[in-house]
Structures are given as C-alpha cells and as structure tokens.
Amino acid sequence: MPPKIFINICRHTTNNEDNQLSNLQTNFAGINSPNPFWLASAPPTDKEYNVTRALKDGWGGVVWKTLGLDPHIVNVNGPRYGAVWGRDRSLLGLNNIELITDRPLEKNLQEIKSVKRNFPDRALVVSLMVPCEEDAWKKILPMVEDTNADGVELNFGCPHGMSERGMGSAVGQVPEYISMVTRWVKDNTRMPVIVKLTPNITDVRYPARAALNGGADAVSLINTISSITSVNLDTFSPEPSIDGKGTHGGYCGPAVKPIALNMVAEIARDQETAGLPISGIGGITNWRDAAEFILLGSGSVQVCTAAMTFGFKIIAELTSGLELWMEQKGFDRIEDFQGRAVGNVTDWQYLNLNYITKARINQDLCIKCGRCYAVCEDTSHQAIAINEGRTFEVIDEECVACNLCVNVCPVDNCITMEQLQEGDYDKRTGQPVIDTYSNWTQHPNNVLACTEEQE
Questions:
Q1: Phi and psi (nearest 5°) for 326?
Q2: Last residue of some domain: 317, 344, 371?
Q3: Core-most of 33, 70, 186, 318, by most CB within 10 Å?
Q4: Partners of 419 in the β-ladder
C-alpha cells in the first residue's frame, strides 16, 4: 500500500488552470532550480540512472554522491544500514556506514555531464572529498568544471570511514582547515562553492564562520551524526554487523530534524553569518519539514532518507503540499517567507517569564485513557486530578504549563494550553499576570532577575 502522504495530491494538482499555484523557483547561491527540493549527496544520487529518474519525477536538483581521487575506495559488501523504528515500524532514523562513491571517477564525470546536458534547468551540484592538499583540489576541480555542473559541495561532514583518512569531518571539526581548503577551492574554480558542515561539533557557528571567511558562497547542513544505532543481543555486535564486527556510522532521518533545525537557526541568526545562503538538510520527510527549514533561513532543502523510504515520487507531495500552504498564506515566492522565523529564535534568558498558560482538557474528546494523569502524577507536578466517573481535571494551583500532558495525549486537541490574560490571577504563584518581562530585563517585580555577569 502506498504511504498516506500521497493521498491528497490529486485534489491539488487537478485544479482549474485559473487557480495559479505559487512559484517554487529558487536561486540558491547563483544556482537556479524549478523548486527548492534537491536530493542530497547519498546513494540515490550515485549514478545517472537514479538521477535521471529523480529529475523526470520532478526534483529541482541533485547533489551528486561524493567523488574523490582515490581509485581504491571499496564499500562493504555486507549490510550498510542500521535503523531505528517507531512502534508502528515507521522509520525514525537510518544509520549508514557507506563511504563515498566506489565507482570510477571518469565514469561519474561522464554521467554528470550527460545529466546536465539532458536537464539544463535543474540544479546539479557535485559533492567532493579529497585529501587536505591544495594540489589534490587543483586536480579534481577542472574535471568537475568540464561537466558543466552548477557548483560543488565540499564534504566536510562525513563522520565515518573517510574521517579516519583525514577527510570528511576530520576537516569539518577544525575551523582553520575549513577556511584553508575553502580558499583553495575558491581560488581554483568559477563554480559556486557550498561547504557541507558536520553536526559532530560543539558550536556550529564556528565552522560556518570559517567557511564564510574562506570565501564560501553557501553552507549546507547537517551532515550525518556519528552514531551506533543498536547492538545485536545474540552476536554482541553493533548493527549493521560485518562478519561479527560493527562500527559507528552516520545517522540521519526524521529523528535528526530537531538538531538540524537548531543548527540552521544558529547560523541564520549569528551576526557574522547572517545572510549566508543555507541549504537545509536533516530529516526532511514532508512539505511541512521543508517549510520549517525555509522559515529558519534555508534557501534550498536537501532530502535523502525520505526518498530512500518512499521512493522518488515523494517529490509530488513535497511540491504540491508546499505550493498549497504558500497559497493559503498568501506567499507568491519562496523568498516571501524565507527566514521569517529567524527573528523569533532567541536565547532562554530573553523569554517572557510572565507568559502564563494552563492546560485544559476537553471532556467531549477525552477517551479516559488516563495517560495525562499518570505522567503528571508520576513524573511532573501532580496537576491533574482523577474524579468520579474517571474524568480528569487540571489543578490550576499546581499546573506549570509544561505541556507534557499535551504531548502524551493520544487524541489530537483533546488537551490544549490556554493563555491567561493580563490581570488574571495565577493560582499557582498567587500573583496577577502583569506586563511582559524576562529574567534578563530586571523587571522590579521579577524575583528571578539576574545578569549575565551573575551567572
């Protein structure tokens, strides 16, 4: 049975011609594409056959699977992927131990040239990873330029296999190396240069700044997260297991989306990197995910795990869903909403501590499962009472509006958070709701007021 994500496509794509759809065309760092959805550098972009099928299905562009100069790259012939599933067997995360392409460089270059010739309106970016030597970059860049590719993506993110050889995240974790290599590339190519960043670092702003200082035209993130997804309880070997042994791999998929969104936002709102084009990557599974990345500043989005889970035709849901949402919001172009959420991302100390909400339970929707009561009673603030007839009621004096009950309730909108208005009495604190303040503004009525120096 096809995934549910395709169910509503026909209603939107068969509208009358008078109902004009929003324009999804993008210009990312000088690279044009008919929509912002690119396939990320990964197995789906490893060869002309795959890429051609994807572009025929409507993808706006692809980042070709990473090329290198080493002719002796050999991928494992055993399992390459490990997985984390939800209780319904939905794929939450995928771990891979695959290296860069093990196909001949010349063959890849020929196919890239062929694809670009056949699809001149699509974005075609080539991912590259070579030793940290200027001569190596000088050697491979002219070969890529000869394919008429639109740009290059420097793979400074791969956390396994190649990093042990001094490439991938071994470069991406050292800002000085990022600047140095990026400068080498910019000095030796006419193509736009995108630097792909590793998430396996404490503060992603520093490598982003380094890429910008090296002359990068854009950054893409996140690459995969170094991980071991599971251990086989019979063989005692990490999965995927190769002849009884396992290794850390790169983790991707829906589970990494929150990490990716945060890192994208950090770069978008950093004073030094604000305005630097960002290609968002990490767990983009549906059009909503893509809209969130774009709202946080991404100019294009790259997809991998969703394509590997549902196939290339998922692009129909991605484009039609985003178009419909844009129409409903009154956005004509991607640029109309790109980055609009960045200004609403702040540091904790600037949050309004006088924004007060309380949980409310809709008795008409409640199925009396008791999950809200159990988790609040056992692990939170004992703010839900169980009454006669197994009905549940919020105790305002104890409710801290933590939202846990909303998140565990199996019924959509059964439990909601209701904001108290200015002048309302907060039974928990015994204080009326007053003007807005945060703990960093030192409001006279704020007993939590402090300064950065006091922390």
A1: -60, -40
A2: 344
A3: 318
A4: 357
Distance, in Å, from the CA atom of 192 to the CA atom of 155, rounded to the nearest integer, reads 14
Q: Distance between CA 176 and CA 154 in Å, rounded?
A: 15
Same domain, 312 and 401: no
> What letter represents residue 116's amino acid?
K
Strands 193-196 and 218-221: parallel
State pTM to two decimals: 0.87
> Does a cis peptide bond (omega within 30 degrees of 0) precede residue 240?
yes
Give me the amino acid identity at 385: A
**What is the span of the domain harbouring residue 229?**
4-344
Cα–Cα distance measured from residue 241 to residue 79, given in angstroms and rounded to the nearest whole number: 7
Residue 330 and residue 363 in one domain: no
Q: Which residues lie closer than 8 Å to 15 by C-beta, 6 or more apart?
A: 21
Q: Both tokens of residue 2?
A: 């096809």
CA distance 54 to 303: 12
Q: And the tokens for 301?
A: 């989005």
Domains held by the chain: number: 2
Cα 81 from chain centroid (whole Å): 20
CATH number of the domain encompassing residue 355: 3.30.70.20
Helices marked H in 232-314: 257-269, 287-295, 305-310
Write down the pLDDT at residue 76: 65
Tokens 């974790």, located at residue: 173
Q: Read off φ and ψ for residue 238, nearest 5 degrees.
A: -60, 145
CA distance 356 to 34: 44
Classified as helix, coil or strand, 185 is: helix
Q: Both 121 and 201 in a single domain?
A: yes
Is the pLDDT confidence value at 452 over 60?
A: no
* pLDDT at residue 365 in the model: 97
DSSP code string of 304-354 = -HHHHHH-GGGHHHHHHHHHHHHHHHT--BGGGTTTTTGGG---GGGSBTT
Q: Are residues 286 and 300 in the same domain?
A: yes
* Catalytic machinery residues: 158
- The answer to whether residue 213 scores a pLDDT higher than 90 is yes
Name the pLDDT band for 163 (thresholds 50, 70, 90): low
Candidates 151, 189, 198; CA nearest to 171 is 198
What DSSP string runs through 186-218? Answer: HHT-SS-EEEEPPS-SS-THHHHHHHHHTT-SE
**One domain, residues 289 and 387:** no
- In this structure, of 36-45, 64-73, 430-439, the range with the lowest mean pLDDT score is 430-439
